[in-house]
Amino acid sequence: MPDRDEFSFLPGQAADLGLTVPAVRRVDLTLADGRRLSGLRWGEAPPALTLLHGAGLNAHTWDATLLHLGLPALALDLPGHGDSSWREDAAYVARVLAPDVVTALETWTDGPQVLVGHSLGGLTAAAVAASRPDLVSRLVVVDITPGVDPGAGPAQIRAFFAGPTDWASRDELVERALSFGLGGSREAATRGVHLNSRVRPDGRVEWKHHFAHLAAAAAESGADPSTPDAVRAVLASTGWDDLATGHNVHEEDPAGLAALVRETVGTTDRPTP
Q1: Burial 76-86 (b: 16+ CB within 10 A, else e)
Q2: Which residues of 40-54 are buried (b: 16+ CB within 10 A; e: fewer)?
Q3: Tens of pLDDT along 13-29?
Q4: CA–CA gap between residue 139 and residue 128 (Å, rounded)
Q5: How much is the pLDDT for 180?
Q6: Rounded distance, CA 225 to CA 203, Å?
Q7: Confidence (pTM)
Q8: How far is CA 60 from the centre of its chain?
């Protein structure tokens, strides 16, 4: 599988939906401690919403949802994921990640955001809303509740990432994902693997996210099942809607989630084909 531009999959996804691809570009900033924080800017206008992915994923996990939404948005790579730097302390928990998200919002947005977070990103979004309510107009949390251990995840996912940490090719990763029943179709698995992995200088392929490179005990020690009271209060005030999907709602039913988010943003307009 040759290396491809990270945006090369979007035209095919958009064509399948009868839509056009808006302007999308990668943005980066350097944090105070020298780490890189990266994300994707969708559209030319200031972002109307900001999206935070779950553990082991990256900003591109929202691609289909954002194509359906057709709104200016910011999708972040959380620390330790995508093109953002890994943390040396491997502390990938909401209370630690939230300050970096605050920096991103202060840098790349010009008004309170509809903040959308999935799983670990949902807890992080709630922590941001609790600490900086001035930056958040509405909160959308996807498949997360107070007290859930964001580092654990479904047993199937834990087993999938418990294997080798580097590979001879991306094709090997695609086959492994499909053997675990992950990724959906081969096309979707190929896209997901490509966008969530990188080729090292020695030619070996590794995951971009830090979780797969941590020993199981170290990964679990980074979990934070004790959700702070302020975050619990924010989550407790959130209304609930159900979609008939598994954990990765935004990948399994992007149109359904986009419709719910569109209502939260305050527009029912769909992007035009």
Answers
A1: bbbbbbbbbbb
A2: bbbbeeebbbbbbbb
A3: 999 989 999 999 999 99
A4: 10
A5: 80
A6: 38
A7: 0.83
A8: 7
